[in-house]
Amino acid sequence: MIESRLKAAAERIAREIPTPFYVVDPGGVERDFTAMDKAWREWFPRFTLAYSYKSNPLTAFTRLLCALGATAEVVSGPELETALKDGFPPDRILFDGPVKHAAELTRALALGVGVQIDSAAEVEDVAAAISEGGPRPRVCLRLAIGTDSGEWSRFGLMPDEVPRARRILADAGVRVRGVHLGVGTLVRGPRTYRAAIRLWRETLPELAHDAPEPFVLNIGGGFPPRGDTADPAAPWAEFAAEVAEECGLLGLRPRDVHLVVEPGRSLAEEHGVLVARVAVRKRRAEGPDLLVLDAGTNLARTVKSRSHPIEFVPSDPDDAADAGGTRDPIGAGSAREPYAVYGNNCYEGDVFARVVDGPSSLRPGQLVLVGSVGAYDMPFAHVWVRPRPPVYAPAGTGHVLVREPGRAIR
Ligand SMILES: Cc1ncc(COP(=O)(O)O)c(C=O)c1O
């Protein structure tokens, strides 16, 4: 379901701006940040929420989160520079990811940015990159976890690599502050995080013993968005309570642990919408009518792997009785029928939805909202055939442009 505030803003902006464009709601991100922060802090008074830049580095989100006290989680040198430009101080930036170039590591360590080491080779790179007289290195080890297929994750160190990593870092004068356990994405409940902690039950107390206080336990991102009413996620309090319980089983008191989470999708996904219009309606002898939008799935690239609510909006108040959508029908009672919804690109697979219920009266010009594009879809979107659409956010009774349109197609 698309949040009513976002929907209202999209409709308002569409009266003035030609489609397609995106609308984001930073207010929704702030609400989710506040709820998440509060729930985790009840169990872990030392708590850091590190926003995953890769999920959407839009300044409307990142600068707001910086002002709210979040930390930035980045996975490349360019992302690191972006976070600095957004105002994050180096001690509120964590540098993650499987590949860090030597110059990036040197810069991160010289600034005092936290580094999550992903591999045995990177342990040596970090030891080599430490400069004398620089800030004390803030280093954690990313530990591999088991995947659903029974194999080890490609990320992080294996158990037999940890002792050597610690030795090399100790020789370089570095005390490992903690660990990072990245469990993947779209994790429905706390069990997966508990399993990752349990997998390392022998190593964690040892590392905690040797770490400078407090021991950092970073459980990464992967949390589901809140608004999926069909398959609701566990509440934050449940995640926090269960992770705290698992820590307790290892002899780690939650109040002595500095817990870090790195949410992306759960903060951003539901707070962005792609606003398009029906460009063409085609009748076929068999099957549902086809709607072709004036936007393509290159602007919402996770349509095949994630649920994206599609809602039809009346083009003016007189049309209200005609409007409706998949999950939030407006004007119930009017005749409805199924549609197949396509994008404007010249290939068969440019499909937003094979079947969506909508008002029978749909015609070209009708506004269509594709929801849940606030994470990954927006940064993944690629320019093809037409320029990149602008991004707007509601502001008072109006709106502001928060990202310029791309002006070129190459
Ligand atoms: C290291 C790390 N942290 C955080 C995230 C954010 O994950 P999500 O958007 O599922 O919360 C990712 C996503 O790939 C990641 O790789």
Largest sheet: 10 strands, mixed
Q: N-to-C SSE series?
A: HEHEHEHEHEHEHEHHEHEHEEEEEEEHEE
Rg from Cα? 23 Å
Based on Cα principal axes, name the global outline: elongated
Tally of individual helices:
12
Number of strands: 18
Q: What is the CATH H-level superfamily of the largest domain?
A: Alanine racemase
Named once each, the bound ligands are: pyridoxal-5'-phosphate
CATH architecture of the largest domain: Alpha-Beta Barrel
- In round numbers, the mean pLDDT is 93
Low-confidence blocks of residues: 318-333
CATH topology of the largest domain: TIM Barrel
Domain count, please report it: 2
Question: Strand content of the residues, in percent?
Answer: 15-25%
